[in-house]
Amino acid sequence: MEDKINSFLEEIKGITIQAEEEAEQFRLKYLSKKGIITALFDEFKTLPPELRKTTGKILNELKQAAEAKLVEAKAVQNSTSNTQNSKLPDLSLPPDPINLGSRHPISVVRKQMTDIFNRIGFVVSEGPEIEDDWHNFGALNFPADHPARDMQDTFFVESEGADKWLLRTHTSSVQVRVMENQKPPIRTISPGRVYRNETISARAHCQFHQVEGLYIDEGVSFADLKQTLYYFVQEMFGDKIEIRFRPSFFPFTEPSAEMDITCLICEGKGCPVCKHSGWVEILGCGMVHPNVLDNCKIDSTKYTGYAFGMGIERITMLKFRINDLRLFFENDMRFLSQFKSVL
Ligand code: DAH
After folding, report:
1. Best of 140, 146, 170, 195 to mutate for ligand 1, by most ligand atoms within 8 A of CB?
2. Tens of pLDDT along 275-286?
3. What separation in angstroms does the CA of 1 have from each of 34, 50, 77?
């Protein structure tokens, strides 16, 4: 009888149960009332007492092995049916983090700048990036032989016929379009992208952004210009910032000036960024040249106005202490994601 038990033991060890019916068949064959093991126990009762000890031991082992096999099969089935159920979402799991983007620093600063000017009544106006010669140069009093019109500085767009098309070199072109289409009083700013044929470096790029400002009305003076720009820098950089004007030249303004602000790095004490002067230049400005008003059919005997133009990159670099202009155009996530917390 022991041989018979041992061969069943081997048989059970070799069985693998996968489906639920297989488990039931296994139970019926070995563990049910009419099964093999029950029959063996019946046979066991007929053994002479001296054989019972050893045979009983292996018979119990057989029963335990059969029961263990069944338990194991049930466990496997439970876990596979769990994975089938897991197609349904587990609503108790924490959600995947949503990777929020960030605004580009140029957009952040452009928005701050337009907000500041909006508060004192300037409205935003826009113009095309592909311009004609008249709006970019002619109406702005650039003489025909002005060096800025040269291929060296301006990207020309291939064009047929007499019209010369180009990528605007400054947003001053928008002031012409506004003056042609609106009557004074005019109070507008024009943010936008501009292009110049420059070698790309840490300080220059072939594309960048400017904000142009224009105010035309009766009796507008240089003092109004100064006060407006003073208000702007104090809003933008804080009330410790001072301004100064230096005489300059632009064909479309007379008189013209460039404006410096206190160096933000050394607070005016002098450092390498401001070349030890304590000042950094941020914009060009002046009183709109009478020729420009006349070119745009605005009566220059009745109206005066001021204009200014500044680079958004320059302001952004000062605000966030960025030392390389190229970073704005490279789309390097390591750079851009630093602006996540800035609205
Ligand atoms: N358009 C000039 C430039 O791109 C900037 C500028 C200077 C704009 C003086 C103005 C101005 O409106 O009055 O360098």
Report:
1. 170
2. 899 999 999 999
3. 18, 14, 34
